[in-house]
Amino acid sequence: MITRSICFRFDVDTPRCLVRGMPALLDLAKELDVRFTFYVNTGRAVLRRLHIKTRGGKVSAKKLSALRKLGPWSYIYTAVRNPRLAELDRTGIVARAVAEGHDVGLHGGRNHAEWQRHADTWPEAKTRAELDFGIDALRRLGVPDIASFASPGWNTPPGLAGILPDYGIRILADSHGTDTDTDTMKRTSPDEALQVPTAFAGEPGGIGYLEWLTARGMDRDQALSHFAAQLDATFRHFAVLYDHPCFAGLEGLPLLREMLVHCRRAGVANITISELGQAYERDGPNFRLPAPPSSADLGTALATTDAAY
User: Fold this and answer.
1) CB atoms < 10 A from the CB of 20, how many?
2) pTM (predicted TM-score)
3) N or C: where does the chain have the smaller number of CB atoms within 10 Å of the terminal CB?
4) Whole-angstrom Cα distance, residue 204 to residue 63?
């Protein structure tokens, strides 16, 4: 038995995330026999009126430009066409994730940018209307049991932890940052969703972790060393790592592969956020997880595929 585990969380909020990044991550997971948590937004990525008038931006850590992460064609397509993401899943990408044992949660409602900018001011009726939209769309994509939720931009509407259980959603993954205890799951009352914090993100601002390492100018060896050091120093029991498929599933894929291999060799179990919550509910804060399989297969996979990158 082991006491440490890590969840790799990817927020799917642009066409490139869904159509290109998510399939690449699913292929990697199948190759290395690991599972991820995907938070899928089924609505639109862009709120066009934000291009005319925006609220003041928050201070954030170094990050890559949207143009760098999306590429020129996808950047223009997202801004101009701005489709509902659910309409783009013509090949059953989300259903494939469920069938292959991954955790698929909900990430907002009708519009990712609107939630990110304004959800902290919403009345309960607006929040529920957005949840109704997102839950219905995600179920149509093949997710019958939606166990967890993450707000776009970490922007939590008032009372969300108490609202989510009405929809059968038992986990809220909105907390992060240096002022958050990232090694402790909690709920303020028995009727609220369990809050699962994220430890591995660029701070301040909750930037995708692999993106943040790249934006700081680290090469793969430096980034992996940073991850390994943080893995030992940051948490005692569990951790959640955050990024987006549009980066981690494409440009960041070689680094992600090495992180997964390192975790296996270090005896850190790879689990989903829902599994983490279930273990907590079953055993309390001192839950135990089975030891991961041997690292031999992962090491072989790394050695035989690394040259391609």
Assistant:
1) 19
2) 0.92
3) N
4) 11
